[in-house]
Amino acid sequence: MNIIAYIVYLFITYLITVHVGKVFYKNGRHYIVAIVNKDEQLTDFINKILLVGYYLLNLGYATIMLRFWKTITTFTELIASVGNMTGRIVLSLAVMHFVNMYAITIIGKKQLSIHHKKQTS
Fold first, then answer.
1. Are 21 and 51 in contact (CB under 8 A)?
2. How confident is the model at residue 63 (pLDDT cuts 50, 70, 90)?
3. Among 17, 31, 83, 99, which residue carries the largest CB count within 10 Å?
């Protein structure tokens, strides 16, 4: 039963990670453009690196979580285990998103402060 749980879990995790990654890539570009003073080429470069890092981190974490899975003997345990492990992945995605947004906010405020000082000088 564990093999079935692994396959279902990895498939769900893959779909969630790829979908959320695409949304972050598309919508995060606007924030990065503002931070790097509208440098489109640098924005695309940073955004692609962030996307690849995001995929590697999440899919690696999901794979490592397989090691901590208990033996599953019933269909009910399979559903509960897949739900539990998928929930952990979703929570980790949420935490990473908020950490990234906080970092982008701090960087954006510093850039705005530097830009404002240059204009007043």
1. yes
2. confident
3. 17
Cα–Cα distances (Å) from 94 to 6, 23, 24, 50, 104, in that order, read 22, 13, 12, 16, 15
Domain span at residue 21 reads 2-120
Share in percent of the chain as helix, strand, coil (round to 5): 90, 0, 10
> In the chain, how many domains are there?
1
Residue 39 sits at φ, ψ, to 5 deg, of -85, 100
Residue 28 CA to residue 43 CA, distance in Å, equals 10
Contacts of 71 (CB under 8 A, 6+ apart): 2
Q: Residue 76: is its pLDDT beyond 90?
A: yes
Q: Report the amino acid identity of residue 78.
A: L
